[in-house]
Please model this.
Amino acid sequence: MEISEQIMDAMRQAGKPLKCGELAELSGIDKTIVDKSLKKLQKEGVVISPVRCYYEIKK
Model:
């Protein structure tokens, strides 16, 4: 499974906006890798940040 898919799965399971550190814990991926992946997903328009430092899947 790709890293971005693991992050998206963790977001779906949580069902609420999460911080980068929380996503790292839930997905079991290093925080720096999660941060880079989140930035990539934001540029692609898949993930949004409704509140500063929190991320969720765009609806």
Residues 31 and 59 are 24 Å apart (CA to CA). Residues 3-57 form a domain with the Arc Repressor Mutant, subunit A fold (CATH 1.10.10.10). The mean pLDDT is 94.
